Backbone:
């Protein structure tokens, strides 16, 4: 949320800040600092700074203090112009405008001792990260082995410079370098660059790795990814979370997106650092990657701000389909056009990095991106095919039920659109006749009508009310069971890196599990965490009795229940307010709860 501001002892709101800017700062004066403008009646026009163009389509309306590009759709006021063009936060943009145009009211920001300490700590960590990045980059130029490794992977000097790649050897040189530059040991620890070993000595967190800086939208180094080039695990190691580095809301390559959008009107989401670097090297300059964690709702919200479609590139195997299903369980921002594209290969080992580096790789990648489909529609079509052709009858029925679950939360017109597309897709399937397609659509419509009746006030609604009234288990117990499941079935651990779980943390167990997983710890480390979570061993015994597939299903059920508990709390907190905003937010939360409750019922967890 944007900060409040003081002026003459009066607290300013966001509305006040916008008003002061519009009254005291002419947008034309702001834009002229970046764009050559020419008069065109009541407007000023010029070449858009947000995308490449030869004919001016960028317009500034001085009367309304507003800009708009008829080419790329960029629009806003003086504040948003500076934020977007300079990659500044709200606070930074307000300060810049206040400084540049001498508006003192915009410089008198609210401050508290606690906020000042927090801001100073962030500034120091960012400064140390920048210093370390320069050290790593210099060491790479002096080291043959990592340079040879990068050359074998077609990483050119231009790409090395573009991404600021570096190298760290045994780590002692980094500690000495930072000490010589006046960085105290405590700050090295806080930045995630160093840790205290069992002997009480300060050691580098990274050693013998290619170092990849993670840079935010404001071009600040917030953390690092380290890639080992010899034998050893883990292959990749990320900076532990710090006040400036949160994996669930950070994207590798995000700092380069604005420039890339001048040539491309979409973003590409991949899984790894080298995927992003290879794509950029071959002209796909809007590629980004999550940092060793599952895509989160915060990632999607960050991407939504760019106002262009997002294409997720996924493996063409079962793991890729599973990843797509997990994304569909998130609250996908309404304005985000989220698409999926699958890399199909005989051995299942092709990835964006290896694909784009082939002789025909660029053309194949362009074809892949052009063929990307809306992620919901993609999954619906696969389910529809399963519902028609799976040789196991119960699997067909499960596919139909899942289609209904995905369609149920949608508005009626969007349901109809998806059903029409499903019908069109099915008509192109081999060995499927019209009668089978009509029967599938009729069955789906029947399921959806049944759910609509439950949502009404007829007799069926009573059953829904009874289910809704049934109390959930205590969230502390749910969280504890969820953590034990993850600790015993470790493929679930990356899913714990989800912001909504912050409010349900059980001590530090969640962070310990994530750290142990990222650090490639042995069984003993996980056993200690399990022992702290489950002293009588009952939860552990129950978790060990089920296989990975059943564990994943139970894990999803627990996540749904925790999300519903979060919504219930938020609604209670808002109920005392009677503003239009709070009423609208309560309505949105209740709709989200309805969606989650439907999904929870679909997992077989009605209790």
Residues:
């Amino acid at each position: 949320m944007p900060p409040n501001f003081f002026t003459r002892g009066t607290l300013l709101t966001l509305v006040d800040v916008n008003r002061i800017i519009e009254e005291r700062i002419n947008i034309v004066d702001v834009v002229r600092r970046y764009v050559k403008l020419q008069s065109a009646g009541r407007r000023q026009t010029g070449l858009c700074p947000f995308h490449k163009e030869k004919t001016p389509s960028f317009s500034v309306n001085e009367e309304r203090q507003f800009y708009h590009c008829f080419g790329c759709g960029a629009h806003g006021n003086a504040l948003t112009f500076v934020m977007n063009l300079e990659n500044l936060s709200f606070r930074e943009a307000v300060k810049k405008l206040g400084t540049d145009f001498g508006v003192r009211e915009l410089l008198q920001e609210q401050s508290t001792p606690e906020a000042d300490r927090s801001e100073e700590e962030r500034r120091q960590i960012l400064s140390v990260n920048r210093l370390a990045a320069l050290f790593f980059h210099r060491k790479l130029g002096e080291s043959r082995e990592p340079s040879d490794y990068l050359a074998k992977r077609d990483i050119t000097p231009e790409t090395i410079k573009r991404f600021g790649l570096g190298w760290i050897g045994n780590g002692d040189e980094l500690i000495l370098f930072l000490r010589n530059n006046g960085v105290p040991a405590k700050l090295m620890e806080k930045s995630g660059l160093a840790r205290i070993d069992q002997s009480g000595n300060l050691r580098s967190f990274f050693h013998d790795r290619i170092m990849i800086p993670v840079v935010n939208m404001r071009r600040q180094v917030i953390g690092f990814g380290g890639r080992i080039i010899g034998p050893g695990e883990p292959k990749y190691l990320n900076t532990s979370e710090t006040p400036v580095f949160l994996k669930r809301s950070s994207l590798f390559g995000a700092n380069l997106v604005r420039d890339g959008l001048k040539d491309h009107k979409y973003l590409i989401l991949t899984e790894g650092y080298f995927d992003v670097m290879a794509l950029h090297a071959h002209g796909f300059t809007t590629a980004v990657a999550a940092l060793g964690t599952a895509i989160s709702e915060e990632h999607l919200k960050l991407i939504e701000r760019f106002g262009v479609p997002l294409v997720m590139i996924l493996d063409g195997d079962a793991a890729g389909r599973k990843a797509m299903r997990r994304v569909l369980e998130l609250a996908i921002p309404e304005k985000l056009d989220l698409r999926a594209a699958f890399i199909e290969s005989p051995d299942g080992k092709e990835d964006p990095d290896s694909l784009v580096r082939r002789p025909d790789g660029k053309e194949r990648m362009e074809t892949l991106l052009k063929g990307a489909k809306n992620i919901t529609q993609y999954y619906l079509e696969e389910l529809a095919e399963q519902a028609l052709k799976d040789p196991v009858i119960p699997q067909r029925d499960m596919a139909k039920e899942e289609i209904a679950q995905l369609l149920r939360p949608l508005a009626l017109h969007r349901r109809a659109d998806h059903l029409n597309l499903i019908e069109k897709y099915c008509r192109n399937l081999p060995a499927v006749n019209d009668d089978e397609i009509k029967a599938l659509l009729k069955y789906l419509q029947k399921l959806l009508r049944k759910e609509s009746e439950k949502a009404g006030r007829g007799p069926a609604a009573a059953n829904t009310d009874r289910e809704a009234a049934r109390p959930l288990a205590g969230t502390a117990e749910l969280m504890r069971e969820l953590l034990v499941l993850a600790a015993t079935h470790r493929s679930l651990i990356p899913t714990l890196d989800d912001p909504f779980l912050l409010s349900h943390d059980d001590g530090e167990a969640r962070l310990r599990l994530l750290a142990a997983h990222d650090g490639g710890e042995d069984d003993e480390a996980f056993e200690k965490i399990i022992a702290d979570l489950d002293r009588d061993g009952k939860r552990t015994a129950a978790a060990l009795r089920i296989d990975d597939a059943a564990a994943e299903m139970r894990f999803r059920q627990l996540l749904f229940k925790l999300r519903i508990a979060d919504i219930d709390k938020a609604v209670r907190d808002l109920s005392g307010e009677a503003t239009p905003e709070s009423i609208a937010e309560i309505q949105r939360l209740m709709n989200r709860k309805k969606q989650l409750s439907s999904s929870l019922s679909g997992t077989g967890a009605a209790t």
User: Anything to note?
Assistant: Residues 254-338+349-357 form a domain with the Dna Topoisomerase Vi A Subunit; Chain: A, domain 2 fold (CATH 3.40.1360.10). The first strand starts at residue 5 and ends at 7. The chain has five domains: 5-107, 113-245, 254-338+349-357, 378-455, 475-602. The two ends are 37 Å apart (CA to CA).
